[in-house]
Amino acid sequence: MFLSGRIASLELSKTMELNSRALELQNTGKRVVRLTAGEPDIRTPDPIIEAAYLAMKSGKTKYTDNRGILELRKKISKYVNEKYQANYNENNVIVTNGGKQAIFNALFSIINPGDEIIIFDPSWVSYDSQIRMLEGVPVHVKSYEENGFLPLEEDLEKAITNKTKAIIINSPNNPTGIVYPKEFLDVVTSLSIKNNLLIISDEVYDCLLYDNTYTSMCTFQEIKNRLIVVNSFSKAWSMTGWRVGYALAPEEIIDQMAKIQSHSTSNVNTPSQYAALKALEVDNSFMVEEFKKRRDFLFEEFKKLNLKFVKPQGAFYYFINISEFGLSDIEFCDRLLEYGLAVVPGSAFYTDGYIRLSFAASFNELVEATKILKSFLKDRRHVFNEN
Ligand SMILES: Cc1ncc(COP(=O)(O)O)c(C=O)c1O
Q1: What is the pLDDT of residues 52-96, one digit of tens each?
Q2: What's the CA gap between 230 and 215, in Å, rounded?
Q3: Strand ranges across the sheet with 116-121
Q4: How far apart are CA 375 and CA 316, in angstroms?
Q5: Which of 279, 312, 346 is the last residue before a domain boundary?
């Protein structure tokens, strides 16, 4: 009776739920390899930690500009302009409490009740819930493994109505690890112009790329007035707990996001902003090399196991098709957990019949995980073939 129906109907993130169950099992003394996490297992680089410490020692412990310190907003715009030949300035930037708050505040700034927002499935866990919290309507467009997890243009066109406000895209993608080719982004861009839509481009994994060249939406000058780009320090510099992200957008939208932030959270915590300022100077290529090694190791192992998947080109996830094993993805994850390996069911990303396995874990854990998977699949194939 006291609760908001809008919020009561939401579920807690399924990724967190599985992680908690794996932790519970671990606490009973069982060895569990957890490949559920969406965060790098690598330490935040020391220069970043030192920058935060120095900032605190020199008194940088008070409120700042609610949009973020000017030096950081300037440095972010310079960094993005150089990286993607864009032309943003500090007024196009707001520093947020992680990429998550950037997406939430961006949606809050644009959604009127009943507005439809298009998302592509498999989709990151929070888009749907955030849209619902804000009285928008999430419209899920499926993408298929056979098409490399790229949505079909005709499906996207069919999903657009006169209530559509925006399309959210996410490349490199969580959970599939795919990177959208420029040709696909051209399609999204022209549809957004033709139908007068905004694009929210979630690029939080844009530093973690293993093969292809990457196209950021920032490079499409023709949609600058309808584009909100979200990024974060969480994955790129292994700073998930520092909670620093940002949005780049037309000033008019940044002004709305700043209003929301000023009345809700105020600025991102001050030492973290100084840490982020330093992070932009820190070479993170060692992380990319490390993750690439792990991705390549798992690729060979999964091929040997005859598993079906699209090879990830970015981020740190494998999205594996488990439909041949005669179990729902949730049952599959439950049984696999009994063998000592925790992964996330595809339904957490609105796509049944898959599991997401994160390779943001140590090499030893990945070796152990492949052994567990091998014995589980052997038993499972055996049972399944007998029935
Ligand atoms: C696709 C995607 N977007 C946004 C985020 C939010 O990242 P953070 O709020 O930690 O910066 C995540 C984190 O898992 C993610 O996977």
Answers
A1: 999 999 999 999 999 999 999 999 999 999 999 999 999 999 999
A2: 14
A3: 93-96, 245-248, 227-232, 198-202, 164-170, 116-121, 137-144, 150-151
A4: 24
A5: 279
Cβ atoms 361, 320 nearer than 8 A = no
Q: Is 124 in the pocket of ligand 1 (CB under 6 A)?
A: yes
Residues 38 and 77 in one domain: no
Q: How many domains does the chain have?
A: 2
| pLDDT for the residue 12 | 77
Which of 243, 263, 279 is a domain's end point?
279
Kindly state if the Cβ of 236 falls inside 6 Å of ligand 1: no
Task: Record the tokens describing residue 329, joined without a space.
Answer: 């993805």
Is the domain of 240 the same as that of 111? yes
Mutate which of 124, 200, 228, 269 for ligand 1? The one with the most ligand atoms within 8 Å of its CB, which is 124
What is the signed CA dihedral for 208, 214, 219, 225, rounded to 10 degrees?
Answer: -60
Kindly state if the Cβ of 100 falls inside 6 Å of ligand 1.
yes
- Closest atom of ligand 1 to 103 CA is 4
Average pLDDT of every residue of the chain: 95
pLDDT value, residue 383: 61
Domain range enclosing 143: 61-279
Same-domain status, 349 and 376:
yes
Same domain, 114 and 190: yes
Ligand 1 atom nearest the C-alpha of 245 is 11
